[in-house]
Amino acid sequence: MEKTIYLIRHGETDLNKRGVVQGRGMDTELNETGWKQAEAFYKAYKHVPFDKIYTSTLKRTHQTVKQFIDDGIPWTQYAGLDELAWGIYEGKESTEEMRTAFENMMAGWTKGDLHLKFEAGESPLEVKERQLEVLEKLIAENTAKNILICMHGRAMRLFLCLLTNRSICEMDTFPHQNTTLYKLHFDGSTFNIIDFHNTDHLKYFCEQD
User: pTM of the predicted model, to two decimals?
Assistant: First the structure.
């Protein structure tokens, strides 16, 4: 059955604003800007007849799509959509040492060393495994034609690779910012991106200021 997937990143949190690493272990809430971004997305897409909402288990995704949930659209949380766990770096302010560590990690991932992870964290391969379970549910849910998914930046990049059958080494080809939209069409066998990194809805955010 054909489906249209609206895949967005959560709105801004204070840790986003400060450049602090969040990850799976930080259950942060939206800040004022994040709530405005969520309102802007709702204004732009409330006309879409969503059948289902999928989010991670973390509050910042729930809050971003709260108005859709409040409209009574069926909502399911999946741990498989949680952000990649950054381990010992979660909740820490950025330092030169940390930036170097992240640059080295990203370089390793791009080269194909997808088993690499920070201490107490997750590797891209481990995130892919939990995302595969969500993908099975996404395809198996035959009655849902329009699905809204809210998740996290790094996890979203990995999920887009999974949906479009790309190597997860290519994850950084998918840019994002808070409430970025990727719209995909599923024809029954493959997913194709029909709207890439769309932030047009943020014009509504500007109108509120």
Answer: 0.96
